[in-house]
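Review session, final week

We close the course with one last complete record, chosen because it touches almost every idea we covered. It is Outer membrane protein assembly factor BamD, a protein from Paraflavitalea soli with 267 residues. Go through it on your own first, then we will talk.
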Amino acid sequence: MKSALIIVFFALGIASCSKFAKVQKSNDYDYKLRMAEKYYVAKKYNYAKQLYEELFPLLKGQPQFEDLFYKFAYCAYYLRDWMNAENLFKQFVEVFPNSPRAEEMEYMRAYTYYKQSPKTPLDQTNTQKTIGLMQTFINTHAGSTRIKEATEIIDKCRMKLEAKEHLSAELYYNMGKYRAAAIAYTSLMNDFPDSQKSDEYKFRIIKSYFEFASNSYEEKKPARFEQVITECNDFVDRFPESKLLKEVERYSTISRNNIKEISKVTK
């Protein structure tokens, strides 16, 4: 039964390709456009795209050109050809700046970058471009119904950038590069000052500086434990309600005791 179904689908595929080949060979451009529309509605975007591409230079400047351009861009999008789709959405706005569809095309251009945003550990260039283009969209289309979605996408992208920076800082800590970890966590806090994890990041700064001090030469330990105490005091001022407060106070106490012990030895 399964083999029979495979044969049927294979035969239908051949017939479909044969029919499309005949459409392509036709010199009747109105017919080609009608067939492109049919393929588009049927979600056969690969066929529609090829026909639109052939008709693109021929219908330029004609009344049908705007609609053709619009659907041609979406064919690339639905075929997951993100780079081409982004370029076509951008070009549409340049060619038809006053079109009722221009706002949608601007949004979709930004959205194609969002679709290309990779997993957290990878390069986040497209994520950053998404934020920039979505913010530009918000700034230039204040009354758009897409503002809410654009804002949500920006928030998601920022969360991803924050997570990536967090991974980098964590990697430094796990590798034993404690000073680099402290600097990375400080940068993370500065880049995302409104993060819900700010107290956690500050705590990681304290731990990183503590480990850095603990693994230093004796003569450098007092100044480096002082750095830990300074960070602890700053934590208390900034996050007086944090659940990590007791742990922070413990690190501060240990650091003070270490300074006292070192002072006794050096006297």
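Two points worth writing down before the exam:
The mean pLDDT is 93.
Residues 147-174 form the longest helix (28 residues).
Good luck, everyone.
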